[in-house]
TrEMBL record:
It catalyses: 3'-dephospho-CoA + ATP = ADP + CoA + H(+). Belongs to the CoaE family. Its EC number is 2.7.1.24. One of its GO terms (biological process) is coenzyme A biosynthetic process. Pfam families: CoaE. Pathway: Cofactor biosynthesis; coenzyme A biosynthesis; CoA from (R)-pantothenate: step 5/5. The gene is coaE. One of its GO terms (cellular component) is cytoplasm. It comes from Pedobacter cryophilus. This is Dephospho-CoA kinase.
Amino acid sequence: MLRIGITGGIGSGKTTVCKVFELLGIPVFYADDVAKELMIKDAILIQQIKATFGEEAYFADQTLNRKYISDQVFKQPDQLKKLNSFVHPAVFRAFDNWYTQQKAPYVLKEAALLFESGSYQQNDYNILVSCPLALRIQRVMQRDKVTKEKVMERIAAQLPEETKQSLANYQIQNNEQEFIITQVLQLHSQLLKKAF
Ligand code: ATP
């Protein structure tokens, strides 16, 4: 069963593209959602986060104080590295466990920082979803009700588009001229050929 990574800059439409693959029966592992879930459910991870950031990292009801953590890692980039060094292995373990339970010619692993984290190297192929910058900004502002500056800040924290293009095996263009569905169908048939 092939492991296919899928990524794209913020607001590029990677989740939207994944939903189309799901319609074709392809299982999708949403790494960022799993990471968020593990941070409130995985006892070892919770312990590591509290040891690094203090008890303030969690509210009394044991939900994660995201604002506090993001402020801390913004102020001290080393803390971000440390946080990733706990979270990434936990997500890898969860993926490996999930993978053994799937039955399909290939599975997708969706992650925003697939290339940045180096995890793309563990996949057979990687897909990049690309979308013009102006459209991404407009869509995220609308979806998350945030300012243009906030979106730009998040984009600046990611690898440049050209670097990601050079690392990707396949690309899907999510612009207003090309249909996602057509491109997914074409890619699906290419991946099926690779899988069998
Ligand atoms: P993030 O990195 O922030 O999680 P993402 O890459 O997963 O974003 P999506 O959430 O799939 O992106 O898309 C961003 C927004 O743009 C969503 O509100 C989605 O509904 C909308 N969108 C994506 N693609 C299209 C499209 N082809 N046509 C119309 N709206 C779209």
